[in-house]
Design brief:
93 residues; alpha+beta; two-stranded antiparallel ribbon; globular; binds zinc ion
């Protein structure tokens, strides 16, 4: 599903984590490979890294949760690029 009324390039789809459909700029939104968890399990069990699947986006709410966890583990938070979630704003004309 997509909407081009603003002339911007954006899309909507389910979040990688909570499955809620949200709208995002696919060039800017943080994302993970669809099979990231399965791949991590295979690697953890000593297997070869499998081909990674298509990227799936992460919604702002889940990104906030991920960042809270990252900071608990002394990892730098993921900062979404400007406009990642602000569909129709901040696009060049
Ligand atoms: Zn989410």
């Amino acid at each position: 599903m997509s909407d081009a009324t603003s002339g911007g390039y954006f899309a909507s789809g389910p979040c990688a984590f909570c499955q809620l459909v949200f709208t995002f700029n696919p060039e800017r939104v943080p994302s993970i490979p669809a099979n990231a968890y399965a791949a991590a399990e295979i690697i953890a069990e000593g297997g070869e890294t499998p081909p990674l699947g298509p990227k799936v986006p992460i919604c702002a709410d889940c990104l906030a949760k991920i960042n809270a966890l990252r900071m608990q583990h002394d990892l730098a938070p993921i900062t979404p690029l400007p406009g990642a979630y602000d569909v129709g704003e901040g696009f060049p004309p």
